[in-house]
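Mods, move this if it's the wrong board.
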Amino acid sequence: MRLTVRPALQCGRKYAFPAAWAAMFTAGVGFYEPAPSIDVASYLSFVTVNSAHAQPLGEPAFLAVNAEPGSLMFVRHEISEADETTARSPRDSAIGTSGGHGRFAAPGNAVRRQVQVRAISPRSADELAGFFRDVAYTLTDIRQGEPVPPLKVDRVPGDLSAKDGVERKMLFITALLPVILEANQRVLADREQLLYLRNKLASDPRMLTAIERIWLDDLADRYDTTIDRIDELVRRVDIVPPSMAIAQAGVESGWGTSFAARNGNALYGQIQVNGRHSVDVPWKPGAGMPQPFADVGEATDAYVINLNTHPAYASFRAERAAMRERAEHPDGFRLIGTLLRYSERGQGYVQFVRQIMRENELSDFDRAKLSSF
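Not the wrong board. Structure tokens:
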């Protein structure tokens, strides 16, 4: 038996050394292969890797931000947003550009939790109604707790005025609700990260990474404040209740039938302050003229940033913050009472908007959520 085993062992020694070198060479090639290049221009948010397991149970993974550049990776936005997102001030939003997400959005994990919306471009009111029928989207179902289909209309159909009052309002509310919810969920993603960073600053300001500081600076710039006033920033980065937004849009645009709404997506009654247009519309620019927008989503973003930044609406933000302190959900019917300066009519305007909210039971939509199909 030893005579038969010895030749095999000797043969094995003969090939063992070359085999080991071949294995090492193969592994070395794998390790040496350079990492693929990344075009960071197409990535707007960040998450950390290799650190999630070090976090306490229940803490979101995006909170574990490592200061070491090698521990950061970028993730692509899947939300329907323009690729050329740049930093814009609230004043830019007031003249017709979307508030957007600036240079950096909320961290990648927060973005992935957001519902993706599907843009639709109805050419007529009947086509708009057809979109809703195809996905079985009715306001009755939403009032009963069903989620809102993520359909984002780009403009109000020009023939909406041809429908009778009840159908016109129904189509307008149904179309605008998911647009407002989508704008709010982006605000909430920013707010979630902001609250975490505020707590981190309170614990030890030195713990903030460079990227977190850049993100905070950008957020503060978009909301027209500074990070040394972080409590004020928290008051500003919050939602506008859908009931309030829908009612104001209905009042200001005649339920989508006004000339400015049909031709310039001017739904919320915002006016120009510097006498220039950002999009082509059939009316001349000028101070006091309706501010046109590229689409309904951009108009909604500008409306939200306006309420969240303009000095005239400080009481709105203070009352909303007080509701948060009492663990209450922002109530549109109560909050509209703070917008006495939104219209020259003052209290008469507030009473009229509240009447619209009551008649159309818009408060039912303040807790609506987008579905994820």
